[in-house]
Structure formats: structure tokens, C-alpha cells
Write a structure and sequence with these properties.
By secondary structure, the protein is α/β, with parallel strands linked by helices. It folds into two domains: 118 residues, Jelly Rolls; 335 residues, Glycosidases (TIM Barrel, Alpha-Beta Barrel). The protein contains ten helices and 20 strands. β12, α3 and β13 form a beta-alpha-beta unit. The N terminus is likely disordered.
Amino acid sequence: MKKFGFAALIVSSAMLFSGCGFSPERALVDPEDVIPAESYGFEKIRFDGIEEQEFYTLIEAEDGVLSSGAAVKTDKGGYSGEGYVDISDNSGILIPVDVPSTQFYKITVRHRADGHKENELLVNGKKAFDIVSEEGDWAETVADGIFIEKGHSEITLGSGWSWFSIDCIEIENGSSIDDKLYTGMSETLTNKYANLKTQNIYQYLRAIYGKRVLAGQCTDYGNNTETDALYKGLGKYPAIRAFDFIFDSPSYPYANDRPAKDYDLAIKWSNKGGLVVYDWHWHAPCGGADFYAENTTFDLSEAVTDQDIAHMDLKDVEQLYKDKKISKEAYKLLSDIDVISGYLQKLENNNVTVLWRPLHEASGGWFWWGASGPEPYKWLWRLMYERMTDYRELDNLIWVWNAQSEDWYPGDEYCDIAAMDIYAAAHDYGVSPATLSDMHDWTDGEKMVTMSECGTMPDPDLIVRDNAYWLWFAVWNWDYIVKDGTTELSDAFTDFDMMHKVYDSEVIITRDELPKF
């Protein structure tokens, strides 16, 4: 299917969603026209302050300090020492440790659970990394690059989902993230037809990766509250603004009353030089219009089909449904994807590149697109990718995968950037180097990694110290950054001094520092 010239056409809403795009006929961009990553010449900022000494210790969990509800047990075999510790809700364990020098350490935690659980490990009250447990026998979570200062420290567990068991913790010499982690990234986008602006943005992202971090901000639907507050309080805009199709799913009861307010704002943001992220809190196509699994009966597994519906006309897909060759769920999914593709097409027609982040946080299971497990999810991701890239011929998308778990990765050919949402405690400005390092392994080191949502801004000094250069960070909206929906900044999660430090830092790129693409 070819696209037709947009020129001076005025596109009606019926045309917008008819299944055809209206940009010029698709063609490959001449590589000579793309600004190469190497042309930007960013220099890395280094940290100097390590006093490395050899160190190793193994601490049995039962030797820690247990809080209410935590208990030493012996009924699950295979533990070391004299037992293990069960941590239930509202309980925890504190493990004291004395280290000989200020340096990076590697921490290994041996744990198990009766189902999927995610729990934080804190060092001196600050989040160091997540321990993800699955149903089964004892497993190990290994995190390198954990910076601990000389002397007494305290390791605590049990502030997350809890309901898991800890056998022991090992602490030994470690190292910060190696610069090699930031090399070997895919040189091109997965869509070989990506337009020139989109390719130039991707090359710029490659240029800064491992050397700078883009400031980002998630924003409330249909207004500029958060970005206005940042400019009012800090004198600068973030480089990236995250929008959402949250109220634009066809099944949303009031979709026609508030049609895609965000995309007009996205066009304005892009025209002023900012980068655009788009999320989609997708209200289920049928079975109850909600994106939370508990509020809809929509079952993604019922939609999975061997039919190549991604490359068919929607009317033909509808006929397959009428002939009972595919489910209603499959047909409705594709219909919704076509509607959102229409909005994305309008953005392309207005020269807006979109860092496209659909189907986020799937592995948690709280959204319907993750409630049926990784295989249906991966089928849906590939369906959407092929529909939008091959059939709808959208050439303005950089695909950002954010399912939060390696088992949910759809494959290198369907993803350009890998993302993680990280919410630390208020005023914890850590940069989660262990998570960043792990995520590169998920994609065989071929994809850049970003922090697509966070509760607090990362400390630039810790970015440099830990060599943890996430491609960008994006603070969540509402109370995470503003007071009661006003354009006044709130220090409830990031204090004002840290906000200024971040937005004034040489490490952080704001909108005024972006090149023209």
C-alpha cells in the first residue's frame, strides 16, 4: 500500500482513519543526507575517587536484624548456614556490614519466592537494585557497580512486595559500568524507511549515549502544567516531553468529546525543538474499557492468531472475524491500532518524530496487555510493529520497548531502544547502575537503554560516578513534580536544590541545548 501526497490537502477525520497515509511515496533516505553520530563530538565526564582494596564477605540472612513479621525458617531445603529468613508484608531484614574502602562492590543475593515478586535492596536507605523472584528454587540476583563508602553500612530488604525468602548475601570487590557497555549499539533504526528527521534524531541519541543524559518530563493529558512549572521554576524546558493517547482509544466512553488533545501540543513542542515521547494507556478494545486488567474481561490470549492480519485491509480482517476464523479480540485490536496509527500519521505529516512507547510495564501484569503472559504480549508487540511499520508505513517512529523483564523482549528487529521504569523513594536520587547494566544483556548490547519513568530526578554527580548514563529520564507527572495541578514546582519527591543542580548540569541536556534536526 502506497501513501499519497499530502500537499495542501485538508484531512477530514474520516480520511485520517481510512487506512491510508498521506505523506509522499515511501522511499529510502540517502545515507549521505543523515548527520552521523560521530559528527557531534561529545566528551565524557569522568569520576576520580576510588580507593580499591580486596574484600569478600558472606552474611547469612539469619544473622541479620529482623523486623516484625520476618522469621528464620528451615522447611525449604537447599539453604546455606542454619536457615533462611521469610519476609512477609510490612516486615524486613537489616544486615550490617563494614567495608574497608570507598569503592564499587558486587552484591549477590540468594532468594526465592512462591510467585513473581519484586523487592528493593537498599544500601544506607537508598535503593541499590531490585531483586526479582519467580516461583521455584533458590536463585541469585547479582548486582555489580554498587558504590559504598568506607566504614559501616546497612543493607535492608523488605520494602517492596515482600513475601519472599532470603538465604544469604555476598559482598565482594566490584567495578563500575565499563565504557564498552555504551559501544556496539545498532547503527540504524529497525525501520529502514525511517524518514530523515527520525534518522537524524536516532544518530544524535547514539552520539550522546554514555556521555550525556536527556532531561525528560511526563505531562498530564491536554495541558502544559508540568513543563510550564519547570520553565517557571528553573528557566529551562526538558529536552523530552512524554505525551499519552490515554483518552484516545475508541472504546473510551468519552473519546469523541476530547479527541487527541495531546497531539496538537506534541506538534507545538516539536516545532519548538523538543523531542516527543508517546505512551498509550490503551483502554481494552472490548470487555470493559479500562487499561487495568482487573477492570476488564479482555483476554489477550484469545486474540492470538496465525493469520497474517497485520498486513491485511481492515475490512478483510473484519470478514475473517465474521467467518469465525479469528476472534473478536483480534479484530478489535487491529481496529484500535489503525485509529492510533491515524494520529501518528498526522504527527508524521507535521514533521514530528515520535519515540513510541506502547504496551509499557507489561511484566507486572496490572495492564491487560501483560495479564496473559509474555507470549501473547510479544505477539501483540510484533502485530503492532508490523501493522504500523509495514502496512501503515509510519516512518516517524523510534520504537521504545518497556515491558520491564527480559522474558518479554520481542526481538532486536522489533525494537530500537529498551526502557525501564524506576521509582525510588522520595529524595533518593540514585541512578540504578546495576539495572542499566543488566538491561544491555537483555538485548545483547545492541540497544540503547533509557529510564522511561521515574519518581525523582537522578543526581548528575551519581551519573558520572557510577558511569550510569541512561539515555534519558522522565519524571512522572502530577504530584511527582507540581503542587496540586498548578504550575508551581513541588519538592515532595525531588527537592528544589536538586532540580536546579540537574537542569544546570553539564551532564544533562535540556531543550535549549538540542540541535535542529
